[in-house]
């Protein structure tokens, strides 16, 4: 996989497909080596909520992915653990992972994915988006309206990621329903 930035203008997000899972596993390993998840876990995220799973296509090939789904506010899904059935009455939209290879970063690709995810949350009628920010990504998420949210009960869940992990929330704008 090349990381040629000259290919950037041809990049775009599209729905993830089962056939993309090999690329997703490879990207996850490259971008998040400290947060490994088995291929079956990544596949389960796709199967649980396909509309929240996207792949970034670039002229050089897959450049990133997003996994997201309806969930419960203040409940952090454990890494490398099956979700099981999605909640019948979710009250948040959880962004499990937004991963971009270095050559696919810049040019607003991550921000474009967030717009699409918030539109999906709005389509589902969910008023809050949630995530765990890792790897120094707090400034990226803060620039998109997410703010750190804390509760003592979250400490153990966050520590399973790393000491710098932060639970973040953002309101889902009603206008997000029309991307």
Automatic annotation (TrEMBL):
UniProt domain N-acetyltransferase: residue ranges: 11-173
Entry coiled-coil feature ranges: none
This protein's UniProt keywords: Acyltransferase, Transferase
Enzyme class at the top of the EC tree: transferase
InterPro entries hit by this protein: Acyl_CoA_acyltransferase (IPR016181), GNAT_dom (IPR000182)
A single GO molecular function term of this UniProt record: acyltransferase activity, transferring groups other than amino-acyl groups
PROSITE patterns in the cross-refs: GNAT
Transmembrane parts of this sequence: none
Annotated EC: 2.3.1.-
Protein name stated in the entry: GNAT family N-acetyltransferase
Organism field: Roseomonas acroporae
